[in-house]
Amino acid sequence: MRSSNPVFSRRGFSRDNGYAGFNAAPQAGAPAAGANPYAQGTAANPYATNPYAQQDTQYGAPQAPARSGAMTIDDVVTRTAMTLGTVVLTAALSWALLPVDEANLGKSYGIAIGAALVAFVFAMIQSFKRKASPALILAYAAFEGVFLGVISSAVSTYISPGTVMQAVMGTMCVFAGVLIAYKMRWIRVTRRFYGFVMAAAMGFVLLMMVNLLFSVFGGGDGLGFRSGGLGILFGVIGIILGACFLALDFKQVEDGINFGAPREESWLAAFGLTLTLVWIYLEMLRLLSILNGDD
Fold this sequence. Notes:
This protein is an all-alpha fold and 295 residues long. The protein is built from 7 helices and 2 strands. The chain has a two-stranded antiparallel ribbon. Helix 4 (163-183) crosses helix 7 (265-293).
């Protein structure tokens, strides 16, 4: 399966070949113990496999033999804490050092937009790299934090002082809720679930792009998808999609651990989870801005 997350879209965990050429478990006809487990992944693209192609109804992944240097949940938690910590730190610094008062509004917005573009470039570079680059991932987190800090400060200053904290708490609740639902198997990540999420995500993004074009050339809010009743509806849809992305990301992390992905791949897991949490936070912030702005 490919996750909708751009990080995981290039990395599938195969139930036949394990992770990126790793063998998941010895099977009949498999090479004898001691054979190079990487050799089978070099002849063809190891990312082209679909781990759900042969399993729609049975949930769960087989456990791979323990390997030295394999990714663990502790690795994922540690790297995710480092990446999100960088986002939070730079967001706090940009909030304090880039005021959004009338005298500095244009300058602060310009820096925020520039930081967002740099973060986007770093994210795309990492998404198309075969290996994780911790420096690149942390650089993305730093620039993303600058963007989030200025935007959050503007919302807090001009809309409602409590909106940012509400968005943070809302994002944490979504993460905790999806994690609990995933661990309890209330959410079952199957091919059908994946197909539905991808179709919904593509439709959502296309509508937002059309709305952006209309707003650029026609002024105002374009087709009205970012304000009023439609804005509230699409804000809720965006948060739900973010929750679905989290479920896909959790499944990818689980499969990576089960199939013995190398430890450095925990940086990719952290990167993917950070991207999804940023998505949820921005949608939550926009939704609450509309609701609080209408008070």
